[in-house]
Amino acid sequence: VQLQASGGGLVQAGGPLRLTCAAPRAITSVFSPLTLAWYRQAPGKQRELVATISSARDTNYVDSVKGRFTISRDNSRKKVYLQMNSLGPEDTAVYYCNVNPPSQWGQGTQVTVSS
């Protein structure tokens, strides 16, 4: 199962960006119970878990994005979102969405923050 991320781009430091993740048709019937997550991989670094959202909409964040990023989900549209505010160059990475724990990786979306 591969979830597809989109919405990345080039943004100035301090700016916002909203990422969207769409579920493939294969899992739309089981989307609601899934714990979903955003991950990112910066150049030369390992992929890291950024945020998770459970079926009950409980959320968790890596310390470096707490207070700046918000994960949300729309079960009716089978989508997951990552609202990113106050972006900094350290947030530059390829962002992926997946279930948690992760399954097969889909295409990520590049986020580049210029200083």
Explained architecture:
This protein has 115 residues and is mainly beta. The protein is 0% helix and 46% strand. The chain has strands at residues 4-6, 9-12, 17-22, 36-41, 48-53, 59-61, 69-74, 79-84, 93-99, 109-114. The strands form 2 sheets. The protein has a 6-stranded mixed β-sheet, with no helix packed on it. It is globular, with a radius of gyration of 13 Å. The protein starts with a strand and ends with a strand. The mean pLDDT is 95.
Q: What's the main sheet like?
A: 6 strands, mixed
Order of helices and strands: EEEEEEEEEE
The helix fraction, in percent, is under 10%
What gross morphology would you assign? globular
The radius of gyration over CA amounts to: 13 Å
Count of β-strands: 10
Derived structural class: mainly beta
Percent range for β-strand residues = over 45%
Strand line-up across the major sheet: 2-10-9-4-5-6
Number of H- or I-type helical stretches: 0
Low-confidence stretches: none
What is the CA-CA span between the terminal residues?
Answer: 36 Å
**Mean pLDDT, all residues:** 95
Supply the key terms:
six-stranded mixed sheet; mainly beta; 115 residues; four-stranded antiparallel sheet; 0% helix
Produce the secondary structure layout.
Layout: E1 4-6, E2 9-12, E3 17-22, E4 36-41, E5 48-53, E6 59-61, E7 69-74, E8 79-84, E9 93-99, E10 109-114
Parallel strand pairs: 2-10
Antiparallel strand pairs: 1-3, 3-8, 4-5, 4-9, 5-6, 7-8, 9-10
Summed up:
The chain is mostly beta strands. Helix content is 0%, strand content 46%. Strands 2-10-9-4-5-6 form a 6-stranded mixed sheet, with no helix packed on it. Strands 1-3-8-7 form a 4-stranded antiparallel sheet, with no helix packed on it.
